[in-house]
Amino acid sequence: MANIRTRFAPSPTGFLHIGSLRTALFAYLAAKSQAGECILRVEDTDRSRFVKGSVENLIKILDWLGITFKEGPHLSGDYGPYTQSERRDIYDKYAKKIIRAGECILLFLYAGAA
Q: Across the chain, how many H-helices and E-strands are there?
């Protein structure tokens, strides 16, 4: 069986709240219980709600709590980039491939922030 990989994908809209902390803890513990890895991928596609410094603050708080990540925007890794808005080219590539192959009836494309 392959190692499990879980992901915590918070929005950088301010301080870490209890619901996000719970989600991060569950993802972290699920991965660790199976000798897997937990990664951080920041969901920053709603640029109108972005709060400067929130990603750094989030990482600092989670690190203080002992919730650490194998990969993330503050680390390197084989599956980056770890910030959603930086993955647009990847999504466009596969969306076009699906459309060309005629494998979908309806495909919602990520419009992205300007």
A: 3, 2
DSSP, collapsed to helix, strand or coil, labels residue 15 as coil
Give one DSSP letter per residue of 40-105, joined into a string: E-B----GGG--TTHHHHHHHHHHHTT---SBSTTS--TT---BGGGGHHHHHHHHHHHHHHT--S
Bin 19: left if φ > 0, else alpha if -120 < ψ < 50, else beta.
alpha
The structure's pTM equals 0.77
Instruction: Give yes or no for a contact between 28 and 66, defined as CB atoms under 8 angstroms apart.
Output: no
Six token digits for residue 100: 């060309």
Contacts of 105 (CB under 8 A, 6+ apart): none
Query: Cα–Cα distance between 60 and 8 in angstroms, integer?
Result: 15
Distance CA 57, CA 36 (A): 25
Q: Tell me what the pLDDT averaged over the chain comes to.
A: 86
8-28 tens-digit pLDDT: 999 998 889 899 999 999 999
